[in-house]
Amino acid sequence: MKTILYSSILLILTFFTGTHAQAQHHTKHNYVVLTKKVPQLQPILITAEKLKEEDGANFGNFEVIICGKEIGDVTDPSKIREFISKAEKLGVQLVACGFSLNKFKVDKKAVPKKMKVVENGILYNFQLQKKGYKSLSL
User: Fold this and answer.
1) For residue 116, which phi and psi values (nearest 5 degrees)?
2) Rounded-to-integer distance, Cα 34 and Cα 37, Å
3) What is the distance in angstroms between the CA of the first residue and the CA of the last residue of the chain?
4) CA distance 96 to 82
5) How far is CA 31 from its chain centroid?
6) Gene3D superfamilies, per this entry (predicted)?
7) N or C of the chain: less Cβ packing under 10 Å?
């Protein structure tokens, strides 16, 4: 009787341990980067590309939030067009901080349509971190 009981416990533990390990293995890796300068998108997007290669099927979402006094650069096609194109190819979401747009009097209508605008970029960053996103601020 003891043998059956111990065998049953061992079988159950093996099943749950194996299931837990599989669940961890298939977890998506999500990333968020907060930056103040559009030119920093170059190394950020290179990083996203490398992480996408490394993570393979486990690569999840990658978002880049642009905040600060240079937010107006997102409305200059010569400064942002190439980055939007590369981000789109990589599946990276570019995000403009609405608080910065308002503070520095940048017309939200001038923000490229392919960019997401959030009310407060810093708050949005924290909200993504609470969802498990790995975060970096530059």
Assistant:
1) -90, 140
2) 9
3) 63
4) 16
5) 3
6) DsrEFH-like
7) N
Rounded Cα distance, 44 and 3, in Å: 57
CA pair distance 86, 41, nearest whole angstrom:
10
Distance (Å, whole) CA 117 – CA 16: 42
Is there a contact between 61 and 94 (Cβ–Cβ < 8 Å)?
Answer: no
Token readout for 81 is 């067009």
Judge if pTM exceeds 0.85. Answer: no
What gap in Å lies between CA 83 and CA 43, rounded to an integer? 11
Rounded (10°) angle between helices 41-55 and 77-90: 0
Q: Tokens for 65? A: 């939030």
pLDDT at 9 over 60: no
Say which amino acid occupies 59: F
Strand pairing class (92-97; 59-66): parallel
Residue 28: φ, ψ to 5°: -75, 145
Domains of the chain: 28-137 (3.40.1260.10)
What are the tens digits of pLDDT across the range 13-36? Answer: 555 555 444 445 568 999 999 999
Give the CA radius of gyration of the chain: 21
